[in-house]
Every structure is written in C-alpha cells, then in structure tokens.
Design a protein that fits this description.
Elements (H helix, E strand, L loop, with lengths): L2 E5 L2 E4 L4 E8 L7 E7 L6 E6 L5 E3 L7 E6 L4 E6 L8 E9 L3 E4 L3 E6 L1
Parallel strand pairs: 2-11
Antiparallel strand pairs: 1-3, 3-8, 4-5, 4-9, 5-6, 7-8, 9-10, 9-11
Length: 116
Amino acid sequence: QVQLVESGGGLVQAGGSLRLSCAASGIIFSYYSLGWYRQAPGKQRELVARIGSGGGTNYADSVKGRFTISRDNAKNTVYLQMNSLKPEDTAVYYCNAKWGDSLDYWGKGTLVTVSS
C-alpha cells in the first residue's frame, strides 16, 4: 500500500520560514520523480516544485529563489524549504510521487497559512 504523508505545515507570519516533509512508503522511492503542489481556496492545484530521480529540479516562477526542494532517498522523504513566505503562499500543500505515465500518487496535504 502506497502512502505519502506530509507534515510541517502551520501558521507563520509573512517573511517567515517553514519546512515541509513528505514521507513515502510502499514505493521504490529512488525511482520516482517527486513534487510539491499547492491549492489555494477557489483556485486550481498548481505545481510548486519538482525533483527528478536524478536530482534535477524545477520551480514555479512565483517561488524561485525562496523555496528549495530536496530529497533523501535513504529516508524515503522529500522536503520543501520555504523562506520569505508571503500571504499568497497560503494553501494546502500536496506531495506527489510519479513514475512514468501510470504510477502517480498523492498525499492528503498539509495546510500552510501565512499571515500579513
């Protein structure tokens, strides 16, 4: 059974930092491309950052220079370090693991609220 469990969300003031974690089980973690997505109230889910199995990364323009995605294959965990947070970063953040076209898993999300 595949599980992706996010943690680390919470309430933070603008300019602050949070680190999200996503612990995976039931998959061969190192094979997977991993991503963080977010969904704000009334908006569609959007990509925040992805990291490939080889370590290559890409980011949404809105978070470049502020957020950093990383992975620890020994711990089956992907992280999202979020610095200089803004109220517009408020959203539920979801972890995603994908391998090819047919293996695609999601966590249940963790809420990040940034107050102004």
